[in-house]
């Protein structure tokens, strides 16, 4: 870890926040026809900026711009030329990484250390990786014909990273895009739009339309869109699947999760405690693949929980711009209310609730790192996605029982296995119904690895060669 005691970034003038932001359509910023909205800093509740709201007519203009750019420029350009733009974007992201990290932290509430060391470098890595594919699509296994205009709708937990997961492969394959960031975190997508200008990306290849759910719906319903890529809740994902049924639109859905971190009695204990802590408290638990259920083998449960509590007591909760902060702010009042509601339900249903002593700031949206013991598979906290810093602990005796409990959820996005036995890792990886299974680690992301879920966690893969399938005619 890089310990840097420089002044807090906001006091160094790293980000040049504007009072208001427009939509990015056809290579230019412009006003929206909706009423507009504000975006706030969830750590202070202070308004950061006014943001334009795209109406259905604005979405229509963005789709028309994307179609023109697709027909006239982008789909005709050799892959080797498209690659140059993507490499240029990746380089500018690196050059402006501090600005991007600070803005992400201000708008989202995540610790600056994570934005700086995880989000932004992974975003650049994604553009570098897919830039490398742009002139090699004939080796992708999915042909090399783009689909057309992609409509992309993303959530608030990793605003810039989800944008990269969507835009980088789409552009590499020769598609153009209309992307809507979440209402509570639009700012880094708009800074990315500036980066597209800086990279001289042809007008209309990337369009960013800000707004709320209605703007997302206008994208989904637009007849000029060839493909919908959505990351968000299972409820909205199901509504989107219904809306595109019977049309020619292709769709990929990355939805919720309720991952189990399974710790066997021979696991490297300190490493497992670290992995469990990272699994649930990274990004305040606002992670679709968060290890929100700990399944620990009964014979080591007591000792493991003691160690886990001691480690949790060292987590620093507070100012996201402080480089020593481990757990930042909850992204919105609505999300905080949901975390409180589910945690209260856990207590009411009889689970034991524990949090280390920690002082939370008075303003802003905060929730302490929380552990529930004596959890049964019937409890809401064991079944529903909390999307916050709340860990539910269950125990098991045998691998069969661990598999049954881990798979006892409508979701199937990710899982973790902690054991010294290679054969047990391989056996568990085969039997756990999860798109990603980490062994003796957790929350590892790499642009070369496909990511995606089973069951109600959605379908389609992002990342790696498989991520190209979503944006090529020969894919899926
Ligand atoms: P949602 O409420 O589903 O929102 C996701 C996006 O969809 C936002 O941009 C949202 O706009 C928009 N939206 C809302 N209603 C819509 C509609 N009817 N039609 C089209 N778009 C609509 O989810 P969230 O609360 O932002 O994100 C949390 C969820 O995302 C969690 O369940 C989490 O697990 C999941 N998630 C999954 C993954 C992967 S990779 N599987 C990654 C991150 C998050 P507004 O925000 O402006 O309302």
Automatic annotation (TrEMBL):
The active site is at 254. Gene3D superfamilies: Aldehyde Dehydrogenase, Chain A, domain 1, Aldehyde Dehydrogenase, Chain A, domain 2. Residues 33-472 form the Aldehyde dehydrogenase domain. The keyword Oxidoreductase applies. Transmembrane segments: none annotated. Keywords: Oxidoreductase. InterPro entries: Ald_DH/histidinol_DH, Ald_DH_C, Ald_DH_CS_GLU, Ald_DH_N, Aldehyde_DH_dom. SUPFAM superfamilies: ALDH-like. Pfam families: Aldedh. Belongs to the aldehyde dehydrogenase family. This is Aldehyde dehydrogenase family protein.
């Amino acid at each position: 870890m890089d310990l840097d005691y420089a002044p807090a970034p906001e006091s160094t003038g790293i980000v040049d926040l504007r009072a208001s932001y427009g939509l990015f359509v056809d290579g230019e910023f412009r006003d929206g026809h909706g009423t507009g909205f504000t975006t706030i800093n969830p750590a202070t509740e202070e308004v950061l900026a006014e943001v334009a709201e795209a109406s259905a007519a604005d979405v229509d203009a963005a789709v028309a711009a994307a179609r023109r750019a697709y027909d006239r420029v982008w789909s005709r350009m050799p892959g080797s030329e498209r690659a140059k733009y993507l490499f240029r974007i990746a380089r500018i992201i690196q050059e402006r990484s501090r600005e991007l990290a600070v803005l992400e932290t201000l708008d989202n509430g995540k610790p600056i250390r994570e934005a700086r060391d995880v989000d932004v470098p992974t975003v650049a890595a994604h553009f570098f990786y897919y830039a490398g594919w742009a002139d090699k699509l004939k080796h992708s296994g999915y042909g090399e014909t783009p689909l057309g205009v992609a409509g992309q709708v993303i959530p608030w937990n990793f605003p810039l990273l989800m944008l990269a997961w969507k835009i980088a492969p789409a552009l590499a394959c020769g598609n153009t895009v209309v992307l809507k960031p979440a209402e509570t975190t639009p700012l880094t997508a708009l800074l990315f739009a500036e980066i597209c200008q800086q990279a001289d990306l042809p007008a209309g290849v990337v369009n960013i339309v800000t707004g709320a759910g209605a703007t997302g719906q206008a994208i989904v319903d637009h007849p000029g869109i060839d493909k919908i890529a959505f990351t968000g809740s299972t409820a909205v994902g199901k509504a989107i699947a219904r809306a595109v049924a019977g049309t020619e639109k292709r769709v990929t859905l990355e939805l919720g999760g309720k991952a189990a971190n399974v710790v066997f009695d021979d696991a490297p204990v300190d490493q497992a405690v670290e992995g469990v802590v990272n699994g649930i408290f990274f990004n305040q638990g606002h992670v679709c693949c968060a290890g929100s259920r700990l399944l620990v083998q009964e014979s080591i449960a007591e000792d493991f929980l003691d160690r886990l509590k001691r480690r949790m007591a060292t987590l620093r909760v507070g100012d996201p711009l402080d480089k020593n902060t481990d757990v930042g702010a909850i992204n919105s009042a609505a999300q905080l209310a949901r975390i409180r509601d589910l945690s209260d339900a856990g207590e009411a249903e009889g689970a034991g609730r524990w949090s280390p002593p920690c002082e939370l700031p008075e303003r802003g949206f905060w929730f302490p790192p929380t552990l529930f013991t004596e959890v049964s598979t019937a409890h809401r906290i064991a079944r529903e996605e909390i999307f916050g810093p709340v860990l539910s602990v269950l125990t098991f005796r045998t691998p069969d029982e661990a598999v049954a409990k881990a798979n006892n959820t409508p979701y199937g996005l990710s899982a973790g296995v902690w054991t010294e036995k290679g054969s047990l890792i391989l056996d568990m990886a085969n039997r756990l119904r999860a798109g990603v299974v980490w062994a003796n680690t957790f929350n590892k992301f790499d642009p070369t690895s496909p990511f995606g879920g089973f069951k109600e966690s959605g379908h389609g893969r992002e990342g790696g060669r498989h991520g190209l399938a979503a944006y090529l005619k020969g894919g899926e």
